[in-house]
Amino acid sequence: MRPVILYSSFQNGEYLPAYIRYVLLQLAPLGEVKFLTNFRRLAAAEIEFLEKNNIELFLTENKGFDFGMWKRYLEFNPLESSTRLLLLNDSIVYYQKNLGDFIHKAELSEAKAVALLENASPKPHLQSFFLYLKDSAISVFKSHLQETPLKENFEDTIQFFEIPFSEKLKKVGIQTFALFQTETDPIFSYRELIMQKCGFVKKRLLEHRFSFEAQKHFWLHGKSKALYQNYSQLICTYGEKDVDFKRSYFPGYSKSTGIRFLEYIKGIAYRILAFFYFRFLKKYRDRFIRKAI
Questions:
Q1: Which residue among 48, 80, 101, 135 is least packed, with the fewest CB closer than 10 Å?
Q2: Residue 86's closest CA among 63, 70, 65, 75?
Q3: pLDDT per position as a tens digit, 134-153
Q4: Domain CATH number, residue 84
Q5: Model pTM score
Q6: Count H helices, E strands: the chain?
């Protein structure tokens, strides 16, 4: 059964990144693909690429992240007769031709809502970068979008859209399932997933694009190695990268040596700050709080 596929992507510039073209080419024969992206001028070659592969282009505002784009598309086209819906976003880089296999496994599952990964924190929930929904799960998703106001902040989007969706599914007795299991927070687990030949990785890990606050999440859990891992190198060595996925397709790969060196220095500075914070400042802060109590 062919799903309707909503692939949401926020990008700058008139050309699509190579890793997105790679995904769209995979998706084209697997279902009815709708490419949801922010308003901007696209090059004629990109329009031709989409038309050649029968991919519908839906330009929309950049508001509410992936959930906002999905919401606006479903308001435009409610897909009332669709019994299968695949939701994707560009926060994941797929470097193997495995999406057809993922869809097949999701279809075979008894669960009505299937993701690649599930996060246990702060509450168990399916991660929204890949959501395969069947029948009644689609209705719950549409209702959830209608009931929930859009959020401008990324963390609020997770808090009010991604996490509650899984809760609503379970509340009405809809079974959920993740194709891959991790022993800890998925963001810490991509080395293990790559070694298992999973075929996908979080884009932010490739780009080393984390604020100081986001990096503290790694340090608090003793997972700094997961933060500073060279994931593109790891994939090329152990991940069984598809030969059609060139190394230059990895986001951040084209950065100059100078920029990479500055990021390396910044990483060292962050680690020094983390050392002093957790070894000294946090201790004195806790002592001050105890005295105040």
A1: 80
A2: 70
A3: 999 999 999 999 999 999 88
A4: 3.90.550.60
A5: 0.88
A6: 14, 11
